[in-house]
Amino acid sequence: MKAKVHYNDFVGSVAADISDTIAANKGNYISSIGEYFNVDKEKFKVVGVSLTGIHNFEVTLLCVDLAKSTPAKEHVVKMKMDLDADGQKKMLDLLFKRLNFVLYDSGEEKYSESNYDEVVNFGDFHHFDYEDN
Predict the structure, then answer these.
(1) Where are the domains of the chain?
(2) Per the CB 3.0–4.6 Å rule, which of 20, 34, 79, 120 could disulfide with 39?
């Protein structure tokens, strides 16, 4: 599974560290997120998590449905989590200690294999008034 949106103007990668809250109680694995939320382990195996949106974002657990899977094919489902506005605000902190997105223009994936040569500060070269834009 790959992340995708309507136009895929940007593509890239993401890396995350699980939150101390979940790690301390359940471990450092994707399945730990399912355990934290008491996902039925007899029915589902949590294999991924998907975050979609900006303001009203959606959290989806990617799961193998053990009852519907066969030896020939795993039956993968997206399990949507119902979150109110307060739950949405808290979810990123609950799930992750650190989160890093790296995006490039679609078609410029060559930069995904590159490392930067130097770190510079935007403010050393530019002035941008966020209030006026």
Answers:
(1) 17-107
(2) 34
